[in-house]
Amino acid sequence: MYAIVKAGAKQQKVAVGDVIEIDLVSAKAGESVEIPVVLLVDGEAVTSTGLDKASVSAEVLGGFKGPKIIIQKYKNKTGYKKRQGHRQKYTQVKVTAINA
User: Fold this and answer.
1) What's the total number of domains in the chain?
2) What is the secondary structure of 31-46 as a DSSP string?
3) What's one GO-annotated cellular component (predicted)?
4) CA dihedral angle for residue 59, residue 20, residue 22, residue 84, rounded to 10 degrees
5) What is the span of the domain harbouring residue 31?
6) What pLDDT digit, counting tens, does each position of 40-53 carry?
7) Among 1, 71, 76, 87, fewest CB within 10 Å belongs to which?
């Protein structure tokens, strides 16, 4: 059994025991979070409608920062140039149960 979950702006395939990275949530390490389900697959049965009650329970392992991304802007012949960096913050969670 696995599920497709929507966490932030991304969708990911998860099964029980998987460790995934999602966008930053305010929960602390050791706490439990609920992630909404988009699609649920159990063998041959695929469920995509009526998933209001379905969710994925996950335990928060901790937070971390993603890789550094460099943003550079440059305009020719004007002397304009700008350099900026960014590191996205993520939360690492371990899937404990898929509630159908």
Assistant:
1) 1
2) -EEEEEEEEEEETTEE
3) ribosome
4) 130
5) 2-99
6) 998 888 888 777 88
7) 76
